[in-house]
Amino acid sequence: MEKIYNEDLKLISKEYSVKNLFNNEFERFIIEERIDPITNFKIRINKSIRNKPRNYGRMYTKRSKCPFCDPEKETPDFEFSKKIYIGDSVLFSNKYPYGKYHAVLVPNYKKHVKNFSQINYLDLYNSFILIKEFYERIPEKDYKYLFINLNKGFSAGASQEHLHFQILIENEPTNYFKIYLNKSNKYFDKYKKFFIEDYFNFEKQLNERIILDGLIKLWSSFAPFRNNELIGYVDTFGIFFLSQNKFEEFIKNLYNILVVYEKLYENFNLVIFDTTLLRESRSYPIIRISQRPLFDIGYMEICHFEYVISSIPEETAREFKENLEKIFS
Predict the structure, then answer these.
(1) Quick one: pLDDT at residue 260?
(2) Which pLDDT score is estimated for 21?
(3) Is 124 exposed, middle or buried (0-12, 13-18, 19+ CB in 10 A)?
(4) How far apart are CA 126 and CA 303, in angstroms?
(5) Buried b or exposed e, range 57-67, using 16+ CB within 10 angstroms
(6) Predicted pLDDT of residue 20
(7) 211 partner at 20 to 30 Å CA-CA among 71, 85, 100, 108?
(8) Phi and psi of 135, rounded to 5°?
């Protein structure tokens, strides 16, 4: 199957069947390969692998004292700034950073919360105000790539169960977003249009994976890298350029999205790439959310950069949209 929007925006997929013989009976599997229109990476969908048995072994749940419940004593300051507090939210330096400007943001440190359903709109609102305060305090202004990240749950990579974001401000884009920005720049030079906006308009024409069409544009990724992956953007040149009313609308919509995603899929990764600091951006702020069950990654992903998933993007879009509409209605 090949659906074409223009020469540089295509949705390409193909299917083939695989049979094996087990207990004198043939088993048939349908494999679908799809090409991600942003990276051109190939992914593989095999719905049957969701039934693959897993041996989880013995899981240890004993945890030491939570440092995020007492950040003043248990977490570090930045070299250039002390911790920043607003309401029940706090932002501080990551004790084990993998970037020069790497912060931990706890939406509510006064309660040991594990889920978005346990915090409220104001906690998320204050969290984003803290992000703005953080990037205004960093001393080097050539660090302009702002990434708002989340590991929700241990299987998604969280080292602490207390709900928290990881904020990275970099002087270069990360690998995925370097590919994305290069694609966006070339696309703009050729068509004088934003790639991510045309991608959404293409999905809107097809009407197979669209979830939200408002301030946040959201759909289920055509060629996902992880199960139940959503992709979207915020209809602004930067989150912190939004008017007060629009900013509040953005926070409310994002809060509802995260609560519903958590309810349906439990553990997940989130990244928001904000474009507020980019002077000549060819993009809007990007949102990506992916489910992360335990042991969901193996040699295909690590060694081959090819992603194997079991969820069907069109089914994800229907399920998520139905549950999200219950909140908005």
Answers:
(1) 97
(2) 57
(3) buried
(4) 40
(5) eeeeeeeeeeb
(6) 73
(7) 108
(8) -70, -25
Residue type present at position 202: F
Instruction: Tell me the H-state helices in the chain.
Output: 71-74, 121-137, 175-191, 195-206, 244-265, 299-304, 313-328
Predicted pLDDT at 61: 52
- The two tokens of residue 130 are 């803290």
Could you read off the pLDDT of 66-84 as tens digits, one per residue? 999 999 999 999 999 999 9
Written as one letter, the residue type at 227 is N
Region of 181 on the Ramachandran plot (φ > 0 left; ψ -120 to 50 alpha; else beta): alpha
Structure tokens at 271: 């990244």
Regarding pTM above 0.90, the answer is: yes
Rounded to 5 degrees, φ, ψ at 163 are: -55, 125
Whether residue 198 is predicted with pLDDT greater than 90 in this model: the reply is yes
Residues in a beta bridge with 91: 84, 105
- Rounded to the nearest integer, the mean pLDDT of the chain is 92
Mean pLDDT of 290-310: 89
Q: Which tokens in the block code for residue 27? A: 């088993």
CB-count burial class (<10 Å; 0-12, 13-18, 19+) for 310 = middle
Distance CA 186, CA 150 (A): 30
As given in the structure block, the two tokens for residue 263 are: 């309810």
Whole-number Å distance between alpha carbons of 49 and 310: 6
Task: Please give the residue that has the higher pLDDT: either 327 or 239.
Answer: 239
Does the pLDDT value for residue 161 go beyond 60?
yes
pLDDT at 48 over 80: no
Cβ-Cβ contacts under 8 Å for 18 (sequence gap 6 or more):
28, 29, 30, 31
